[in-house]
């Protein structure tokens, strides 16, 4: 916990699950008589670092440390030079990496307590990951968490950082720890001797991990995301220190880019400027809808003039230029109200996509004609398909060049009925 290096005797070398006395290349596992390396446990990732021989040469890098079944610290190493059983080596952990990890671990304790203050005592830890670049905290809670609640949690954690609270760790017996009010974590098995991490009497937890000596060492805490990961379990991901600064820096850069786009000289005016643009956009969209509706009405006047008679039924077939299927349906509504013909067939092309609509009167339906049958007959001409009710059917397609054929096929279909 408080040593970052040690001189240690190499007791065991394992290569491909076999005990060997020497290892000259590749990856293997080694056990020393003592080690400063933290083995992965309690959600905290393992330390990494280096193994140095008596000549000062780095002979291996430590990439992972796990606890073996009997509690030995098993170091996974990438060998650069020869490692020999029985030799004494200098072990050195990656201190900057360790410092990033401990900031995140202490931050998880602060977050755990903040969760309970904001959400209630039921919010218990249900898993965690403490890595150099971020922390992940899973906890029990039914229902959604509001943006306001997240802001409160984040604020509480940062206030505890600013208060510069000493972080004390003591080893004691389990009963004394419980009397201190220490929180025990889910599914953890504790022996008679336990380690208590006490942050100013505000957060007291049983924990075997490494921590900062003072909360101000964390620097800054920033929540990145919050989500549900299962029934009654939610997850918060957050960053501290350097990563928190980099996140805020990236967000500020994005805000400045938005300010440039909306032509806001000052960042504090970005929101009001964006709201103004949003209002302008709504007004323009409304104006555009009105113009499109007028255009559709004008087209309707032109389209509805061309009534043909096929097999004793009056029919209108036309290609129109409207915005979408919704406006095609509006044309069909006008057609229905004016009772212009028995059958209406409209085609529209927008961005290389075809929309077809067929409408029929009740009289046409009574004569055995169905809009759904007609749309199925003509849709293949535009490379698509569709269907619908006897009085109204629609289809989509990807071949605008087939529109004339589709309209022609509609007349052929009717003449064959």
Descriptive keywords:
417 residues; 6-stranded mixed beta sheet; 33% strand; elongated; alpha+beta; 6-stranded antiparallel beta barrel; single chain; 9 helices
What's the overall geometry?
elongated
Largest sheet strand order = 1-4-7-6-5-9
Major sheet: 6 strands, antiparallel, barrel
End-to-end Cα distance, whole Å, is 89 Å
Q: What does the radius of gyration come to?
A: 36 Å
Helical element count? 9
Q: How much is the average pLDDT?
A: 92
| Quantity of strands, as a count | 22
Oligomer: single chain
Low-confidence stretches: none
Beta-strand level of the residues, as a percent range?
25-35%
Global structural class: alpha+beta
Roughly what percent helix? 25-40%
Describe the structure.
The protein is α+β, with helices and mostly antiparallel strands. 34% of the residues lie in helices and 33% in strands. The protein is built from nine helices and 22 strands. The chain has helices spanning 95-119, 147-162, 174-179, 241-261, 270-303, 325-338, 362-366, 371-378, 403-415, and strands at residues 5-15, 18-20, 22-23, 26-32, 49-52, 58-67, 73-79, 83-84, 88-93, 125-130, 135-140, 167-173, 193-199, 203-206, 221-230, 233-240, 308-310, 313-320, 343-350, 353-360, 385-388, 392-397. The strands form five sheets. It has a six-stranded antiparallel β-barrel. A six-stranded mixed beta sheet has the order 17-18-19-20-22-21, sandwiched between helices. Helix 1 crosses helix 2, helix 5 (270-303) crosses helix 6 (325-338) and helix 8 crosses helix 9 (403-415). 31% of the residues are buried. The mean pLDDT is 92.
């Amino acid at each position: 916990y408080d040593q970052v290096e040690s001189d240690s005797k190499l007791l065991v070398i394992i290569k491909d699950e076999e005990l060997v006395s020497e290892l000259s290349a590749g990856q293997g596992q080694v056990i020393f008589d003592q080690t400063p390396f933290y083995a992965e446990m309690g959600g905290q990732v393992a330390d990494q670092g280096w193994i140095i021989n008596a000549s000062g040469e780095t002979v291996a890098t430590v990439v992972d440390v796990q606890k073996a079944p009997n509690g030995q610290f098993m170091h996974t190493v990438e060998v650069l030079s020869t490692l020999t059983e029985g030799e004494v080596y200098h072990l050195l952990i990656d201190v900057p990496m360790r410092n990033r990890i401990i900031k995140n671990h202490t931050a998880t304790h602060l977050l755990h307590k903040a969760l309970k203050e904001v959400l209630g005592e039921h919010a218990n830890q249900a898993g965690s990951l403490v890595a150099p670049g971020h922390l992940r905290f899973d906890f029990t809670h039914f229902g959604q968490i509001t943006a306001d609640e997240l802001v409160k949690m984040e604020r509480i954690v940062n206030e505890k950082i600013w208060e510069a609270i000493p972080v004390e760790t003591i080893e004691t017996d389990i009963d004394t720890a419980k009397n201190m009010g220490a929180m025990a974590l889910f599914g953890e098995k504790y022996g008679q001797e336990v380690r208590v991490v006490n942050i100013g009497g505000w957060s007291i937890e049983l924990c075997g991990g490494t921590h900062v000596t003072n909360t101000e060492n964390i620097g800054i805490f920033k929540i990145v995301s919050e989500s549900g990961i299962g029934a009654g379990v939610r997850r918060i991901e957050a960053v501290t220190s350097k990563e928190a600064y980099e996140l805020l820096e990236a967000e500020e850069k994005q805000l400045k880019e938005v300010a440039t786009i909306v032509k806001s000289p000052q960042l504090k005016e970005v929101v009001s400027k964006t709201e103004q643009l949003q209002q302008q956009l709504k007004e323009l969209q409304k104006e555009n809808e009105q113009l499109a509706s007028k255009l559709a009405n004008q087209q309707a006047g032109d389209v509805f003039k061309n009534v043909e008679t096929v097999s004793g039924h009056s029919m209108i077939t036309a290609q129109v230029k409207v915005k979408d299927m919704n406006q095609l349906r509006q044309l069909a509504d006008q057609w229905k109200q004016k009772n212009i013909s028995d059958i209406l067939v409209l085609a529209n092309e927008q961005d290389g996509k075809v929309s077809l609509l067929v409408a029929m009167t009740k009289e046409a339906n009574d004569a055995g004609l169905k809009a759904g049958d007609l749309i199925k007959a003509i849709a293949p001409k535009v490379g698509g398909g569709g269907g619908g009710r006897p009085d109204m059917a629609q289809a989509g397609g990807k071949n605008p060049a087939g529109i004339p054929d589709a309209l022609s096929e509609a007349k052929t279909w009717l003449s064959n009925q």
